[in-house]
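Continuing from the previous page...

OK, I double-checked the sequence for Calcium-binding 39-like against my notes and this is the correct one:
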Amino acid sequence: MFLFGRTKTPQELVRTLKELLLQLEKGEKKYEKIAEDVTKCLSGIKNILYGTNDQDPQTEVIAQLAQEIYNSNLIRIMIDNIIRVDFEGKKDIASIFNNLLRRQIGNRSPTVDHIASRPEILSKLIHGYEVQDIALNCGMMLRECCRHEELTKLVLTSDQFYKFFDYVELSTFDIASDAFLTFR
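Thanks. Re-ran it with the corrected sequence; updated structure tokens here:
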């Protein structure tokens, strides 16, 4: 992936994105420059997962990327900081998350296993309905999680599940509709 003037490996992309997101979280100076670099990294990761116009996705590179994302706990960091990225970045985070969640190796779903071992990720996605700017993105990711029985059980047995009764009655129609869609 060509980024920042040279080709970046999946490991470099993940490491760079993690560092940039943590800088955004701390409220570092040069916010616009950091946010722009976050968008570039997200785009680079998305290109690895989906391919580009002139290159198909490569299974081996995707496997390296996914493993690096799990090892660095980048899924949680992306969800923690989704509010701090721009509109396209929010869409890219949801797209990356959903792509990784659909990924299977034989009968295994490594991202499902990763999220199941970290239920705070599901909790953050549920709480996303409380923030208008990220509610629809979090809802999209949460619905993708609920396609997997193991993750659905975690959502249904969590204390946050009962918040859906409040979310479906929100005065903001699109958020209430999205919450109802997820609840259903």
